[in-house]
Each structure stands twice: as C-alpha cells, then as structure tokens.
C-alpha cells in the first residue's frame, strides 16, 4: 500500500480529514508482517480487555510455554489448563484460545492461507471462533495483513476521531462512521490510522502545556 497515494486521495476526498493529516504529519503505519498468523490472533485474544503492560506480561508467559516463544495450535491443545492459568490467563480466555486451536486443527480456520482470502472471508473465518468479534478480525486485517481498506466502525477511538474532526456534538454510531468513511475508500485503513494518531497528538499537546 502506497502511503502517498492514499494520502493524496484522502486529502482530495475529505477536507476535514486533510486537516487531521496536516496535524498528525507523516504516515508511519506498517503491518506486523513478521508475526505468524496464529501468533497474531492468539496475541489479540490475550490482549482483550487488558492494559498494555499487563497484557504483554501475560502474553510473554503464555508464549514461553512454546518452543521459540511461538504458539502452535496442536501444542496449545496439549497444554494443561493449570499451566495456562499459571501464565495469568483466565478460564474464559483459555476457552477462546482452545476453540481457536481446535478450529485451526480441524481446518475450519485455514490459518496458513488466510492472507489468500478476501476481507469478508477472513472476517467470517475468524468470527467463527469463540471470543473473536468483528473488531478483532479488523485489527488482524489491518495490522497483520496490511489490508488497505478497513474501517473499524465499532472502535471507540475511530468514533472519537470522527467526532473531533467533524465537530459532532455526540459520538457517531457505527453506521454513521461507515457513512462518513465511505468517501475514504479504498484507503480507509490509512484514514483510520490518522484518526487514532490525531487523538494521541491531542493528548501529547495537552501534556506539553
């Protein structure tokens, strides 16, 4: 995905987003191409509803249960629940991780060829797993596969970013997010990145004052 081509399109398509781009500056979005698909998805599950530091600690303990710190589906199924609990995982997340591993083992989730599927096909495959919703699937599409046209309409940061850019009195609904973002296609991933970063930039400015 060409950042410059995306930015040129977004500037022409939406003057309000152009202002956001000016405020944030250079786009440094880059997917985590070094992670295996299974690793990326297990990491997303572990990180759900946890602060970054706590999640990183727990994920590190979980990954350490595998050779080269790389989770593998069939080995995950062989691990006793006590060892997973000792790593800091809740019973609910253990259930989610095992459901993922079972579906990968059975072939229901074609983990090694996910990148060959369309965005909708990937979303359907991942959301068949317990504990994985549309938001998690969208994060995989964006930050693992680098798909260029993803707009996480359920994401609070995206909603807040649009609210601020468009000076809305209330947070936009997911449907309103999709309506506003329609003009950003086919580069809604870069638009989303700028909206997230605009919130970070605002927070940094406040701290500096």
User: Gap between N and C termini, in Å?
Assistant: 36 Å
Could you give the count of β-strands?
0
Main sheet properties: none
**CATH first level of the largest domain: which class?**
Mainly Alpha
H/I helix tally? 12
Q: Report the average pLDDT across residues.
A: 93
User: Structural class of the secondary structure composition?
Assistant: mainly alpha
Q: What would the principal axes of the Cα set say about the shape?
A: elongated
Low-confidence segments, given as residue ranges, are 205-209
Examine the coordinates and then state which fold CATH places here, giving the name of the CATH topology of the largest domain.
Endonuclease III, domain 1
Note the beta-strand portion: under 5%
Helix-strand pattern? HHHHHHHHHHHH
Gyration radius (Cα, Å) is 19 Å
Helicity, as a percent range: 55-70%
Tell me briefly what this model is.
The protein has 209 residues and is mostly helical.
What does this entry look like structurally?
With 209 residues, the chain is mainly α. It has two domains: 3-30 and 151-208, Endonuclease Iii, domain 2 (Orthogonal Bundle); 37-143, Hypothetical protein, domain 2 (Endonuclease III, domain 1, Orthogonal Bundle). It has helices at residues 3-13, 15-24, 37-47, 52-63, 73-78, 81-86, 91-106, 119-126, 134-143, 156-165, 174-181, 188-208.
Question: Secondary structure elements and their pairing?
Answer:
Layout: H1 3-13, H2 15-24, H3 37-47, H4 52-63, H5 73-78, H6 81-86, H7 91-106, H8 119-126, H9 134-143, H10 156-165, H11 174-181, H12 188-208
């Amino acid at each position: 995905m060409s950042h410059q081509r995306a930015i040129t399109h977004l500037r022409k398509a939406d003057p309000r987003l152009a202002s956001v781009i000016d405020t944030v500056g250079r786009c440094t979005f880059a997917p985590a191409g070094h992670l295996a698909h299974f690793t990326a998805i297990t990491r997303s599950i572990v990180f759900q509803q946890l602060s970054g530091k706590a999640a990183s600690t727990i994920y590190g303990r979980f990954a350490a249960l595998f050779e080269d710190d790389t989770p593998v589906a069939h080995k995950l199924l062989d691990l006793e629940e006590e060892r997973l609990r000792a790593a800091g995982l809740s019973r609910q997340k253990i259930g989610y991780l095992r459901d993922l591993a079972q579906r990968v083992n059975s072939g229901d989730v074609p983990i090694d060829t996910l990148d060959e599927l369309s965005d909708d096909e990937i979303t359907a495959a991942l959301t068949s797993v317990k504990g994985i919703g549309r938001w998690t699937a969208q994060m995989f599409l964006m930050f693992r596969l680098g798909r260029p046209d993803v707009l996480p309409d359920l994401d609070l940061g995206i909603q807040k970013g649009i609210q601020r850019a468009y000076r809305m009195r209330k947070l936009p609904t997911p449907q309103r997010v999709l309506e506003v973002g329609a003009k950003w296609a086919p580069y809604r991933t870069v638009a989303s990145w700028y909206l997230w970063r605009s919130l970070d930039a605002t927070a940094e400015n406040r701290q500096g004052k």
